[in-house]
Amino acid sequence: MKKIIAQATVIALGLASLSAQAVDFTAAVGQSGDSTMVYRLGAQWDWDTSWWESSVGRLTGYWDAGYTYWDGDDTSSNHSLSFSPVFVYEFAGENVKPYIEAGIGVAAFANTELESNELGSSFQFEDRIGAGLRFAGQEVGIRAVHYSNAGIKQPNDGVEAYTLHYRTSF
Question: How far apart are CA 82 and CA 105, in angstroms?
């Protein structure tokens, strides 16, 4: 637990150095590949930059920091902290804007076992893809997230989570 608190402090200090812009918050719920319930709370900071703007849409992105609780049985529950840059292609629209997203970041797990998976290390890479709709300062979507240490340490079983999420601006 001390390790996770120290890592959360480092992430928080890093996020404090980001420019003073609006923070959006997300809540997500879903399941892992082995049917463990997954609950996630996150914060995002938009990049305020766009590329390849056209009548079809634009490429943009955000920084994402999150805490995830993996609600397994007594021996397989876990906690993780993650940080990731996420690229978003937002399609043009008046009131509702569909989007797709992808990102690769890092995560730290409280322990190296989750469900029947042996992660090999607390450090994991976080790969994600998702899609959803943005409207009136809010967003709903689906995501698939894969965690793995990329073979840095064996074993490297990895784990996936599939979630529905809601994002809002304050």
Answer: 7
For 2-169, CATH number?
A: 2.40.160.20
Instruction: List the catalytic residues.
Output: 146, 148, 160
Quick one: pLDDT at residue 77?
85
**Amino acid code (one letter) for 141:** G
Domain boundaries, the chain: 2-169
* Torsion angle of C-alpha atoms 97, 103, 109, 115, degrees rounded to 10: 80
Instruction: Give the pTM.
Output: 0.83
Query: In whole angstroms, what is the distance from residue 45 CA to residue 169 CA?
Result: 10
Q: Measure Cα distances from 72 to 76, 115, 141, 143 in Å.
A: 5, 7, 24, 20
Q: What pLDDT sits at residue 13?
A: 46
Q: How far is CA 43 from the centre of its chain?
A: 9
User: How far is 75 from 138, CA to CA, in rounded Å?
Assistant: 36
Quote the CA–CA distance of 5 and 49 in Å, as a whole number.
Answer: 32
| Mean pLDDT per 10-residue segment, the chain (170 residues) | 52 48 92 90 94 95 96 80 98 95 97 85 96 95 96 90 93
Tokens representing 14?
């890093």
Residues 6+ apart with CB under 8 A from 22: 45, 46, 169, 170
